[in-house]
Amino acid sequence: MEQERERGITITAAAVTCYWQPRFIKLADDTKYKINIIDTPGHVDFTVEVERSLRVLDGAVVVFDGKMGVEPQSETVWRQADKYHVPRMCFINKINQTGGDFYKSLDSIHKRLSPNAFPIQLPIGFEKDINGVVDLINMKSYTYKDFTDKEFVVGEVPADMLEKAKEWRHKLLEKVVESDDAIMEKYLAGQELTEKEFLTAIRKAVQGGAFFPVLGGDGRGIIVQTILDAVTNFLPSPADRGVVKGHDLKTGADIERQPTDEEPFTALAFKIATDPFVGRLCFFRVYAGHLDAGSYVLNARTGNKERVGRIVRMKADDREEVKEVFAGDICALVGPKDTFTGDTLCDVDKPIQLERIKFADPVIHMSIEPKTKADQEKMGIALSKLAEEDPTFKLSTNEETQQTIIGGMGELHLEIIVDRMKREFKVEANVGKPEVAYKETIKKIAEAESKYIRQTGGRGQYGHVYLRVEPMERGKGYEFLDEIVGGAIPKEYIKPIDKGIQESAANGVIAGYPLVDFRAAAFDGSYHEVDSSEMAFKIAGSKALQDAVKHADPIILEPVMKVEVITPETNMGDVIGDLNSKRAQINEMTDRLHLKVIDAMVPLSEMFGYATALRSMTQGQASYTMEFDHYAEVPKNVAAGIIESRAGINVRKGM
Description:
Elements: H1 2-7, E1 14-20, E2 33-39, H2 47-56, E3 60-65, H3 72-83, E4 88-93, H4 102-112, E5 117-119, E6 121-124, E7 132-135, E8 140-143, E9 153-155, H5 162-176, H6 181-188, H7 195-207, E10 212-216, H8 222-234, H9 238-241, E11 244-247, E12 254-257, E13 266-275, E14 279-288, E15 291-292, E16 296-299, E17 304-307, E18 311-315, E19 318-322, E20 324-325, E21 330-334, E22 344-346, E23 353-354, E24 364-370, H10 373-389, E25 394-397, E26 404-408, H11 411-425, E27 429-431, E28 435-436, E29 439-442, E30 446-454, E31 461-471, E32 478-482, H12 494-506, E33 518-526, H13 534-550, E34 554-568, H14 572-581, E35 585-592, E36 595-603, H15 610-617, E37 623-633, H16 636-654
Parallel strand pairs: 3-4, 4-10, 5-10, 32-33
Antiparallel strand pairs: 1-2, 6-7, 7-8, 8-9, 11-12, 11-23, 13-14, 13-22, 14-21, 15-20, 16-17, 16-22, 18-19, 18-21, 24-26, 24-27, 24-28, 25-26, 29-34, 30-31, 31-33, 34-36, 34-37, 35-36
Helix pairs in contact: 12-13
């Protein structure tokens, strides 16, 4: 993408398929492997690309900056990989640059991610003098003159590194033999392990999630070859990951599919993209079975059949057309109309529903409007297509102002969306100021009675419900309970009550923000044989929620961001003072080379314009990263200001 080249960052995940035959150390002789690689962004605003890629991949290589060690986004990716139980290895990059340090970065991995990460290689040299690695498995050195060299010199471990290499090899052995009883017995008996036994023990430990191999280097030439060797030796193949589980669409019963070509076709659509040459692309991972171009698949979400036209294997921005795909493949369908991220594609006669991918809600919103009338229709089409591609980008319309509202994971996220709209769809737009995605919730249990009665010339309206609301844990969403007994309210009116509650909750109670993390229970009421209707009970449910929430200690929640500021020590006092003025909670202050690192939790509402302020107070020497962490209660004085400003908006709207 143009934006990626201009900004020097990855924005969208790119897929490539390559083939590799291990060169240095190998478990199987002369085996050539096919590897599907997805390169994901590092910036937290585009974390959706990491989330959906980890959902469909079997293993991961987590790349760290050797000058920075573990950064906030590294922790986010690590947690995402934990969630999907993805075995992984670590690569510490850029250790050949000034400030690059393999061992300090390794220490940060131990402290912030896992103590079970151990090197399988040690770098030879320091910073610009790095010229190879010592392999701890076979205790050989691999050196090169330049990082572009394709060849290397195999030799003995340098004398000045021998003791260090023996020490790290001993630690490595002690850790990995724990995963294999037979190898552990041999090790405890003092017998030397063969190279194959050592490799097998590492492979078993990695795939069991108990061990994370660490490599390091300059990220080019021979070093990349050692990474690919480690990928093929240690990370799991689709067969190693075993069965994939789903459920029967009709019965709801659990179903398993083996990762073989003979099983019924089972795949997950994990990304939708618009290609300027072929149009709409649907990336999918095949878990079982095989698929031929020209055949049909079933979309488990819609229940509709979709014809498989062209299938392409992606090579970044290039495409190779294929006639069939098999278990373990990652490819793309050209032009599917009604398939979206998270949909299961399966055999028409043997349907299965795989677990969908869950994505975070936007934390920031802004209004957007076309610059000219001619842009009006084009803007709607552009935004819809961009929303199809990115599940964390949300579109909505403010019913009172009729403004189009876009929501995303950060200012950069929305800035890129607007820029893509301009470049790719030729739509010019004006955008409003960013707004925080506040939410509302309650802190205690409360009850309310609502009776909706309306008499008109003909048939009247009658709905009567007693409602109880109670708080739930953060992130639990909404739950409705039907506690009506004795037919006080007929069954056909229960769903309308639920619907009325949900519609009312979407617009909040105290400040117009969505009401979340609560349970509502309809426990009593009455109805009229003639006048009761679904509409009457829907209105009664809506009013009951409004009344109950007002007595349930309602509060406003705000997104709180995890912020890491890296600053020269001379500016640290100013930076901390400024953070404290922003209601920050300082968690930790550490050293990184000659700089100070401040970890803090700061409300998102206080962070707008922070980049400019930080540059100003540190003469451009400090930097920061920020990512969403959790929602927290807004202090009463701040909440009062939010409610007042929202009331002012509503008054002006009503004028």
